[in-house]
Specification:
Number of domains of chain A: 1
Shape of chain A: globular
Number of helices of chain A: 4
CATH class of chain B: Mainly Alpha
CATH topology of chain A: Alpha-D-Glucose-1,6-Bisphosphate, Chain A, domain 4
Order of helices and strands of chain A: EHHEEEEEEHH
Largest interface: A-B, 47 and 44 residues
Number of helices of chain B: 5
CATH architecture of chain A: 2-Layer Sandwich
CATH topology of chain B: Arc Repressor Mutant, subunit A
Strand order of the largest sheet of chain A: 1-7-6-5-4-3-2
Radius of gyration of chain A: 17 Å
Shape of chain B: elongated
Oligomer: heterodimer
CATH superfamily of chain B: Winged helix-like DNA-binding domain superfamily/Winged helix DNA-binding domain
């Protein structure tokens, strides 16, 4: 059985080149800052502009934490990233899930951005570790990171009866 | 925005303290209902009901072990991870769109 990929798309009022540039060169300016795994507070996130480049976050103290790498670099139309973060929010070089992003021009100043995150089955048995995040106070190394966001979200959508 | 019934079921399931306590117990390995009940201050019918909700949300699965029915954390709880990543990308692309269009006048 194969888990269905996550597919998202968004249409932006910008030409293809700008859409690609903001996604990559200015990645750190729009990435939701609460989604990070480093021990330091989030400062920015970086996608290095070449195949084989790193995808990582940098904390306010200058420390870096890898998220994955660039698998395909085809500006300004296509980008494939490897997401190498396990369900318990650790970087694992052996894990490779893929995020493909396509930038399709639909007018002189409009671009459709289609994102697919796939190969979830590669999370394998480690997906069960996600439970530790759901029902505990957080994850060592990411006290204010993703675990906190998930818990806040859960609290909002399901307030105590 | 509410197009993700799997996500809703997941967060509903996690929104209850007793259900979180059951998940905590199962982190140590599979348990039969009678043993889960013994460890928690609620009755067996309530535990069974909670287990059903957790099962429907894809968080636990049941398996027959000899004559006993055992409950365990769903070893392929990929559904939960997928639902979570779905929410992440939804939020990230919204922010990305805002960033692109904010820049477009410059």
């Amino acid at each position: 059985m194969t888990t269905t990929p996550v597919r998202k798309s968004v249409t932006v009022d910008a030409d293809q080149k700008r859409a690609f540039d903001v996604f990559t060169a200015r990645h750190g300016t729009w990435w939701p800052s609460t989604y990070h795994i480093g021990t330091s507070d989030y400062e920015t996130a970086v996608i290095e502009p070449f195949a084989g480049g790193r995808w990582f976050e940098r904390g306010v103290d200058g420390s870096e934490a890898d998220w994955g790498k660039v698998l395909v670099w085809e500006p300004p139309r296509r980008l494939v990233l490897a997401w190498q973060i396990t369900p318990d929010f650790q970087f694992d070089p052996e894990l490779v899930t893929e995020i493909e992003v396509r930038f399709e021009p639909i007018g002189p100043a409009q671009t459709r951005v289609e994102l697919e995150h796939r190969y979830f089955d590669r999370f394998g048995g480690r997906a069960a570790e996600m439970r530790a995040i759901f029902d505990s106070g957080g994850v060592p190394g990411a006290p204010q990171g993703w675990a906190g966001i998930l818990r806040e979200f859960a609290a909002v959508v399901a307030p105590p009866a | 925005m509410n197009e993700h019934p799997a996500t809703d079921a997941l967060f509903d399931a996690l929104g209850d303290g007793t259900r979180r306590a059951i998940l905590e117990q199962l982190r140590g390995g599979p348990l039969p209902v009678v043993e889960i009940t013994r460890r928690l201050p609620v009755g067996r019918p309530a535990v069974s009901q909670h287990l059903k909700v957790l099962k429907d949300a894809g968080l636990v699965s049941a398996r027959q072990d000899g004559t006993r029915r055992q409950y365990q954390l769903d070893p392929a709880g990929i559904t939960a991870v997928r639902a979570w990543l779905d929410g992440l990308w939804e939020q990230a692309l919204d922010a990305y769109k805002a960033a692109v269009e904010q820049d477009s006048g410059s």
